[in-house]
């Protein structure tokens, strides 16, 4: 038997490990199973190249609970260790890593990904154990070894009578960690961290009922058999080639990832690259609900099939964070800060690759089945529109598949819009005017007026649309977007022809004076326009520029000079060719004149969904009085 003292400058390193990583102490199981997996895969490699003259077989990793003995066993059938290797890898290398770890992270170490990167994977055991044993036998023809350490720098190392290849780690669970002797807790952790590990993981057994024989007698008693319970899928979909999977395989894997998701994903994107970095994964476009802030099912990050986190910020482009799925890469550094991640060259390349791959997939979906893509547009548009705003590389490719729907459910790309609208919607200055509505119902009267002139009206109703059209206009000097209720239709698309007002200049001045004494100045700017006599007498509009800047400010427009807090301002456009304009002007009784103006203003407000509360109640009473 050998005893010794681990050469480490810290008097007692184990309480420090536990203290620094206490918030993530559950990761010990992930780390130890990862070690067992590595040991098994190393053996596979050595047998493949002929260096290990042993039978690889069908190795598994087993997790066993001994509740009475307060022990947790982890057993692998991997490469194993000799006594010399235990001395080297457990007593020396790991502790030099431990010293480096403590020096670098003594003040802030909290990252669950750090511990394995400093050779500390095995020592995470001391986060939950008061004593740890290793019983191991190498694939080489050498005696087994038994290492014991009680959480102090002292250890013992002696021969063991183990005859089978591999390693068994025995954790004597500490009194403050007895939850890890509960079957439900271990099952939860195995499902969280090890669900897709590449080596089968056994945890407990299942009782299965054998099929009833066809010639069974009437008093036949069903036979049962005990089978091993394997908790993981060693060959998840993302590790396979896309050519080996069909749509049903992808859907099945989606539900394996998210068992509580009952809706099918809209489509998937398979990531697979091995140069200049390694990355595999599958991203799914889910059917997004209106509330984008609440998202329980997130993209999961793995390293070589080991779950790391569902916080993929900095790795997956921000606009794709609303997607679901898996990203697996050994090239993502886990022991750096978020700002370090964003500055990391490999991570930038990964993020750019994901952006490009998503754009290419969207283009192919659009090209292969446009009708299906259009049917899914409302469920994916917010992701794509956000991508156009936040990622220049995505914006460059998006013109090929981003759609602009009309209120009549026709869909155009930007180039198609230009081609289809240019004949009717080019103004006298040669600029294409794209009319759009933000709410089909609330702006119905304005839409109808535009359609009567043969104009197309888009339905652009996402919360960030003002930002997006601002960007599109900046890149296309020959096009302008104007909401259909921002002015009367003849002003929205100005042509050469002009309509003559029936009222003289003097009468128009008189009418404006009357209106400005009755209409609230703090909310409305009175504007006289000569329009068709059949057009609405009063129209309320909100200037495009002011409304757009206000919307952009409210949705994170940055330097919009505080416009988000400005009160709502509208134009009251009065049609001087309408009979009502003449009636108001010619009514000499002031109360009657005021009554006409207020009624007309309320009707205009009603058409814009602006008449609410007390004002709506007064309008209804007034209207009933008129029809008595």
TrEMBL record:
The keyword Secreted does not apply. Keywords: ATP-binding, Chaperone, Nucleotide-binding. It comes from the Bacteria. Transmembrane segments: none annotated. InterPro entries: HATPase_C_sf, Heat_shock_protein_90_CS, HSP90_C, Hsp90_fam, Hsp90_N, Ribosomal_Su5_D2-typ_SF. The keyword Nucleotide-binding applies. Belongs to the heat shock protein 90 family. This is Molecular chaperone HtpG.
């Amino acid at each position: 038997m050998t005893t010794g003292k681990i050469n480490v400058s810290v008097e007692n390193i184990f309480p420090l490990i536990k203290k620094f990583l206490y918030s993530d102490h559950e990761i010990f199981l992930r780390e130890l199973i990862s070690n067992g997996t590595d040991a098994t895969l190393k053996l596979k490699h050595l047998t493949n190249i002929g260096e290990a003259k042993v039978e690889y077989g069908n190795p598994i990793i087993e997790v066993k609970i001994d509740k009475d003995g307060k022990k947790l066993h982890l057993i692998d059938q991997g490469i194993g260790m000799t006594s010399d290797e235990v001395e080297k890898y457990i007593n020396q290398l790991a502790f030099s890593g431990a010293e480096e770890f403590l020096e670098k992270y003594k003040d802030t170490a909290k990252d669950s990904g750090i511990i394995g990167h400093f050779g500390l994977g095995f020592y995470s055991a001391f986060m939950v154990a008061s004593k740890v044993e290793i019983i191991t036998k190498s694939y080489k023809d050498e005696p087994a070894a038994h290492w014991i350490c009680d959480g102090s720098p002292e250890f013992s190392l002696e021969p063991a009578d183990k005859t089978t290849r591999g390693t068994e780690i025995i954790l004597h669970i500490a009194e403050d960690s007895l939850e890890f002797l509960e079957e439900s807790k271990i099952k939860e952790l195995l499902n969280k961290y090890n669900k897709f590990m590449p080596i089968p993981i056994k945890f407990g057994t299942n009782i299965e009922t054998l099929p009833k024989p066809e010639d069974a007698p009437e008093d036949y008693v069903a036979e049962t058999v005990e089978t091993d319970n394997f908790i993981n899928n060693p060959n998840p979909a993302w590790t396979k080639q896309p050519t080996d999977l069909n749509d049903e395989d992808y859907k099945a894997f989606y539900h394996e990832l998210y068992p509580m998701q009952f809706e099918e994903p809209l489509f998937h994107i398979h990531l697979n690259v091995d140069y200049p970095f390694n990355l595999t994964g599958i991203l799914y476009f889910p059917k997004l609900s209106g509330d984008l802030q609440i998202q329980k099912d997130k993209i999961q990050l793995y390293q070589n099939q080991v779950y790391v986190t569902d916080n993929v910020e900095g790795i997956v482009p921000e606009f794709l964070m609303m997607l679901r799925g898996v990203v697996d890469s050994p090239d993502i550094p886990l022991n750096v800060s978020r700002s370090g991640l964003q500055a990391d060259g490999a991570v930038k390349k990964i993020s750019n690759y994901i952006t490009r791959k998503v754009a290419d997939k969207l283009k192919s979906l659009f090209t292969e089945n446009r009708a299906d893509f259009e049917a899914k547009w409302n469920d994916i548009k917010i992701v794509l529109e956000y991508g156009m705003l936040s990622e220049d590389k995505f914006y460059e490719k998006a013109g090929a598949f981003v759609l602009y729907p009309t209120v009549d459910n026709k869909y155009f790309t930007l180039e198609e819009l230009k081609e289809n609208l240019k004949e009717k919607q080019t103004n006298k200055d040669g600029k294409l005017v794209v009319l759009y509505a933000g709410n089909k119902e609330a702006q119905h009267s304005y839409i109808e007026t535009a359609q009567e002139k043969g104009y197309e009206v888009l339905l652009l109703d996402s919360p960030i649309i003002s930002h997006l059209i601002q960007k599109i206009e900046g890149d296309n000097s020959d096009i302008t977007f104007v909401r259909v209720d921002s002015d009367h239709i003849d002003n929205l698309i100005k042509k050469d022809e002009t309509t003559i007002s029936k009222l003289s200049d003097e009468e128009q001045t008189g009418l404006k004076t009357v209106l400005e004494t009755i209409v609230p100045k703090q909310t409305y700017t009175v504007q006289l326009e000569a329009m068709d006599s059949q057009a609405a007498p009063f129209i309320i509009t909100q200037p495009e520029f002011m409304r757009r800047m206000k919307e952009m400010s409210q949705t994170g427009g940055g330097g919009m000079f505080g416009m988000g807090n400005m009160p709502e301002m509208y134009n009251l456009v009065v049609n001087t060719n309408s009979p009502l304009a003449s009636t108001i002007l010619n009514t000499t009784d002031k109360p009657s004149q005021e009554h006409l103006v207020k009624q007309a203003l309320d009707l205009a407000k009603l058409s814009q969904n602006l008449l609410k509360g007390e004002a709506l109640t007064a309008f209804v009473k007034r209207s009933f009085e008129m029809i008595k």
